[in-house]
């Protein structure tokens, strides 16, 4: 089966070393109308007062049934290679115009590594929009057992070309799978340490 993926021109994806494709012609109503890399996210990373949050919700809810705290961008990629579960670079199979495609969900460039939207004032600075990843099947060049212990249930088959025989196999590669809001608890300083610092 040929899979299909997504890309962001603004952020280099170090897990997929690739030439990015044009945006997919498919429409994804839940994301495409607003969360596009070409449309800026207003006030990204800035704490908004309740009235400002309500205004933002009314503006964005026109295009969807829900609003993301960390907006994602859905795009398609045509990787030349990627990282497997052993963090090894693997070359993906391609033959002329026959290329493997994958969908990726990337953090919008305006919110990546910034505080999440719609957060309580006490938690705002402790929150962050981070890129999430998952693994998907891909047809890759067999690196050989010296470098990668391929599971027995992954088949391997040869192909012939100008440079001789090449073996290909199934493997997992790392892809972007969404943008998540993570809250990190603030570290409380112990009272005796604080008193010690005041005395000195």
Automatic annotation (TrEMBL):
Any Pfam family matching the protein: Spaetzle
Alphabetical list of SUPFAM superfamilies matching this protein: Cystine-knot cytokines
Record's protein name: Spaetzle domain-containing protein
Gene Ontology MF term list: growth factor activity; Toll binding
Domain of life from the UniProt record: Eukaryota
Species assigned in the record: Oryctes borbonicus
InterPro entries referenced in this protein's UniProt entry, alphabetically: Cystine-knot_cytokine, Spaetzle, Spz/Toll_ligand-like
PROSITE patterns: NGF_2
Sorted UniProt keywords: Disulfide bond, Glycoprotein, Signal
GO biological process, one term: innate immune response
Entry annotated with the keyword Disulfide bond: yes
Cellular component GO terms, alphabetical: extracellular space
Positions of the Spaetzle domain: 69-142
